[in-house]
């Protein structure tokens, strides 16, 4: 064989070795389509599970600043008004004018930190595996424990004391309903017009949660849970006729519950209707409503001035809680009250806008539910304070005193902020 041919074949063999070495090197570098043998043998399902993960996001990445500003402004105004409304009551009951504001300030600081941290967690984490199931089971256990060993005030048994921690499980139940219903709608989106998927599971969960909260004699919590459930079912696609039938059934149950007679809480609930219809009758039952209306009326257009309320000096009972908006009207007047109402409206508008532009059904329903809760509670509280609806003891978000409510609220706003990071909205 000629020497040139031998050299040519040797060069080809050397080139082949080089090409094989390069191919192996490319495989080690995980060039697409050239995976190592052990990875090729890995089942497809296991690879998908391995790749699916939820990681923390940097604090400022994609955060919706208008929503964050509305939250922080309402919280700041709420803390100022809480101090103004509560220092007389705080001094009388605790011998410390700063008792309520210090505790609420601590809850606010911790809640804001928790909100910002939660905003970095992918909201799909709450949709993963059995997370919603564990939330539901935990909430039911808390509600049952409250009925068994909870502390009472009057006829109501709403608080659960676990060592130094004192919480109100009905606040957790509101979030649980929103999370469960968002999960249901996202799983059965195409079957929401059927009774089996669009009504039955929602009704069972709603009856369970609302029934346990009603057993605590917590009418306002029952009302909010029921309305949140109905609103999410309506948006999710449940047929209107089934919602109408459910609303009529719920109204009948409440009516029968309030008209059982007796001297207990049922008679008290009916007394609220009478107070609503005749707020200026001179008796103890109408005292709180009358003082609230006096405070609103004395505020006029611009109010008597921040810190200058007269009704908070032991005239209006517990002004730091459900009737704090009456003190707002007295001190800041109609103008100040309208500004706060506009801020709530802007927060709700931004939340709805973000939710409707979420990238999936779960994010859309979860965001809408959390936004509905704020708007619903704010609207009902203002209606109660102005005697537009009967007194049901509903707190005003970001304003009323209460650690559990504030922490849950700020945590929920953290979830909404996380939804805003991936929503198709313009970030400013």
User: How many distinct domains?
Assistant: 1
Query: How do the helices and strands follow one another from N- to C-terminus?
Result: HHHHHHEEEHHHHHHHHHH
- The fraction of residues in strands falls at under 5%
Distance between the termini: 78 Å
Provide the structure class.
Answer: mainly alpha
Query: Can you tell me the residue ranges where pLDDT is under 50 for at least 5 consecutive residues?
Result: 16-33, 47-54
Shape summary: globular
Rounded to the nearest angstrom, the radius of gyration is 29 Å
Mean pLDDT: 84
Measured as a percent range, the helix fraction is 55-70%
The number of helical runs is: 16
Q: What's the count of strands?
A: 3
Description:
The protein is mainly alpha-helical. It has one domain. 67% of the residues lie in helices and 3% in strands. The protein has a three-stranded antiparallel sheet with strand order 1-2-3, covered by helices on one side. Strand 2 and strand 3 form a beta hairpin. About 6% of the residues have low confidence.
Quick take:
The chain has helices at 3-28, 37-40, 44-51, 65-94, 99-118, 131-149, 169-187, 195-198, 200-215, 219-236, 240-258, 265-277, 287-299, 324-356, 361-385, 403-422; strands at 151-153, 156-162, 165-167.
Keywords for this entry:
428 residues, mainly alpha, 3% strand
